[in-house]
TrEMBL record:
Keywords: Isomerase. GO terms for molecular function: isomerase activity. The keyword tRNA processing does not apply. The keyword Cell division does not apply. InterPro entries: IolE/XylAMocC-like (IPR050312), Xyl_isomerase-like_sf (IPR036237), Xyl_isomerase-like_TIM-brl (IPR013022). This is Xylose isomerase. Residues 26-224 form the Xylose isomerase-like TIM barrel domain. It comes from the Bacteria. Pfam families: AP_endonuc_2. PANTHER family: HYDROXYPYRUVATE ISOMERASE (PTHR12110), INOSOSE DEHYDRATASE (PTHR12110:SF41).
Length: 249
């Protein structure tokens, strides 16, 4: 099973961060996380974010940021300061996935970003929601249609749950994309679009061990929640306790 390390997407605890950034990162570290997925938005809050990361010895191998219509040099300089090696575009809205031409345009933006990122010693990646998997062009998912046009150095961070919501056999999808997939977002639940029904990894319908087996080059499994109906810290703790025994460095 190729899960090498576990991280936490800080979007999961965004509400706590708004009230107490340093205290939230302290609690994340106390739970047992040694890595987080940060964001350009958090970096832009000022030096207190990086100070808190360093104070609690939290690495950030990945950072999320828009990669379209932004100052790419500022984004990649921030990633270098944070210590990330990959910057992931996490949200291209559903209305921009209506045709093959749309998928091509997304690929073109990522390819441009990848060329700029290389000058900073970085990679770029793409993170999906359900619509890139639900939408088909000539029987092929919009995500795969985009991937066909990507430069070879662009990687994927596949949200396994949203891929399932998009109607995919996730392990089969990952097998088809395995040469690109370096990161997985891992949450669980009943496989629907109701964010508040999301559950910690291992408590829902997602076949996580089978999914992990389909990604031989996986670098990090990233715990993430869009929403959670209970105590989010208990949820991210439960996910880590489920995933940690699966780690094989």
């Amino acid at each position: 099973m190729p899960l090498r390390s576990v991280s936490l997407q800080l979007y999961s605890v965004r509400q706590a961060i708004e009230h107490d950034l340093a205290g939230t990162l302290a609690r994340v570290a106390e739970i047992g996380y040694q890595q987080v997925e940060s964001s350009y938005r958090l970096y832009s809050r000022g030096p207190q974010f990086i100070d808190a990361l360093r104070a609690h010895s939290l690495a950030s191998p990945t950072m999320t940021s828009p990669l379209v219509d932004v100052d790419l040099h500022a984004v990649f300089a921030a990633a270098n300061e944070i210590g990330a090696h990959t910057v992931v575009e996490t949200f291209v809205p559903e209305q921009f996935w209506t045709s093959v031409d749309d998928a091509v345009r997304v690929a073109e933006h990522l390819n441009v970003a990848a060329q700029v990122a290389a000058g900073y010693g970085l990679r770029v990646g793409y993170h999906n929601h359900w619509w890139e998997l639900e939408r088909l062009f000539d029987g092929r998912t919009a995500l795969e249609t985009m991937v066909d046009r990507l430069r070879p150095e662009v990687v994927l961070e596949v949200d396994a749950y949203w891929a399932a919501v998009g109607g995919q056999d996730v392990a089969a999808l990952l097998s088809r994309l395995s040469d690109r997939v370096r990161f997985l977002h891992l949450k669980d639940g009943p496989i629907d679009r109701e964010n508040l029904r999301q559950l910690p990894a291992g408590q829902g319908k997602l076949p996580i061990p089978e999914i992990l087996d389909a990604v031989p080059d996986l670098e990090v499994g990233v715990v993430e929640f869009d929403e959670y109906a209970g105590d989010i810290f208990q949820a991210v703790d439960a996910s880590l306790r489920y995933l940690r025994p699966l780690v094989t460095p």
